[in-house]
Amino acid sequence: MTAKSFEELRIWQKAIKIGDDVYQLTDLPPLKNDYKSRNQLIGALVSISNNIAKGFEYNSRVHL
Predict the structure, then answer these.
(1) Cα–Cα distance measured from residue 48 to residue 17, given in angstroms and rounded to the nearest whole number
(2) Transmembrane segments in this chain: where (predicted)?
(3) What is the C-alpha to C-alpha distance for residues 10 and 36, in angstroms, rounded to an integer?
(4) Helical H runs in the chain?
(5) Angle, to 10 degrees, between the axis of helix 10-25 and the axis of helix 35-62?
(6) 53/16 Cα distance (integer angstroms)
């Protein structure tokens, strides 16, 4: 099966799930008050799913 959108990719779905899980953990001590580490973690998590989506879109345009 060929994915028609990046949302169909299992790797993207897993990245979102992991992001949600880690985001919930950052709301707990000690990360809750460690703003620098918290922001770095959240930024990295968002970057993972964004990069998967960008790669999918790039590859989709190349093959048109």
Answers:
(1) 11
(2) none
(3) 30
(4) 10-25, 35-62
(5) 170
(6) 11
Considering only CA atoms, give the Rg of the chain: 15
Each residue of 31-42: pLDDT tens digit?
A: 999 999 999 999
How far from chain centre, in Å, is Cα 36?
A: 19
Distance of alpha carbon 44 from its chain centroid, rounded?
Answer: 8
Q: Is the pTM of this model over 0.85?
A: no
* Cα separations in angstroms, 31 against 2, 11, 12, 40: 39, 26, 25, 11
CA 26 to chain centre: 15
